[in-house]
Task: structure prediction
Amino acid sequence: MMSRRKRLYPQSARRRAVPRLNWTPDPLAETISLSMSKQPSVGVLDLAPRVPAIVSSSSVSLKSYALDGADWANAPAWRPLANSSGESSVNESNSIPRSLPLAQILALLLQPPLSLCMSRDGPLRWPSELLDFQKNGVGVLIERPFVLLADDMGLGKTIQAAAAMRLLVRRGEIERILVAAPAAVLRNWHEELKRWAPELRVIEVVGTQAQRAWKWDARVHVKIVSYETLRSDIRRVLRRHGRWDLICLDEAQRIKNSGSVISNAVKSIESNRRWALTGTPLENSLDDVRSILAFLQPDKPIEGDIKSSLSRVQLRRRKSEVLADLPPKTVTELFVPLSRQQREEYDMLLGKGVDELHRLGANATMTDVLVLIMRLKQICNFSTINNYSSKLDDIAARLATLRQEGHKALIFSQFTNEMFGVRRIAKALEAFGSIIYTGDMSALQRKQAIDIFRSNPSVGVMVLSLKAGGVGLNLQQASYVFHFDRWWNPASEAQADDRTYRIGQTRGVSVYKYICEDTIEDRIHEILLAKRELFTEYVDDICMDISQRLTEEELFGLFNLSPPPHAVKQT
Result:
């Protein structure tokens, strides 16, 4: 008996062949955790003829699941690992394992299907039940190494990513995860990971250079870092941290400029899996999505039809398709006249500005035009003489009614200063319980502002800078959105709208966009509207959003001028 056992299971490998099973006291709350990444090749049993019925009934297969998610639900939550040669231990023709170490056979037979693991009645505890389309998204993230998750804003991309990370770590496929995100949402990522992946150790890479160095070296599952910090620390990341198991980019449109430092830094990091999360993969042109595709598949050149390349990696669902019960969103464009004082200032500045551009002639630059446009837009917000604002008068009248009805509102502006933007607006609306949210506030101040707006019934208005508050925030407490001034790119405004129009919203959302009549705002609006209509057919075809910025010709054309030959696009 001893010699027979020795031939089957060599003494030298007895302890290494079957790793210890880490059982937990509550098998319904926790599942078996197995660490088998260094499984030796000895002690392997050929049990395929003996357990075909049991194994085949689990439909185990390492084939990639289609992006429609039709087959992921029956996939095992923890599938067998690859053998030492890098090949799967599963025979893909009939899904029956031909040679598996004993511990892997046990894991295979004991594991629940992936659909059960994502159910609140399953072996894992979840803070709430995932919606069906979210479960599908988690399944796709698990089964595909390269995914562009392009769901509409507000459909829970962060939640899907966090749940997928949890399951991938538990099944032993990943251990080291890097999440790059805008600085404003680092805390939100940390909180969502605590809720949806409580077993994972998470750290935010923030602070001084010395503090960040310590955090980069920390032994945790997930490191969350802002794009700006990643750009600053990229040499350390490449030199000391090697290949990651997963890189996840939140608001992946941040790398749309393929030649930017941030884009190049992100693409230079090696990883086995790459996810890109964004509700607006196309903001301006096809070059945006080409850069994201280059990140997802760095070794695969993008050739031929861009839609064909997208179809291999993209998963996109729209609110209208998956959230039939979500209350409606209405968008209204409010054309308001300038006050008499504003009109006098506006016309005077416009005349002087155009005269100056004529005087410069061929020496006029894009910067000259943009400065003039910005100054004109500021006067559309507030008079520099008596501080009057037609827009503010209209908002105040509407808020008087809305606050009586118990509604809260968000107001977005591209300006943050005391004269024309966020701070001036908030000060004028103090009677309605106003609070600000801008990029120059500390992370703690921004978090406190969000908490106060959510929980304090006397605070009814949050005034946000478009860039700082337009992404990553969940503000379903508000049901009204006001765009005090307009940005070049309507996709940025759509992102801002979806801070409140998202899962969890129980009221209809009303969005108001202010445009001053017969001004630069009016002319820019007409051009952008024409461009959006021009791309409607193409956009619908690939299920994406596209909003073109103004070209040099269009910007100079706002003042009936032709651009000089050397003008450089700077919008």
The first strand starts at residue 44 and ends at 45. Residues 53 and 328 are 50 Å apart (CA to CA). The chain has 24 helices and 17 strands. The radius of gyration is 28 Å.
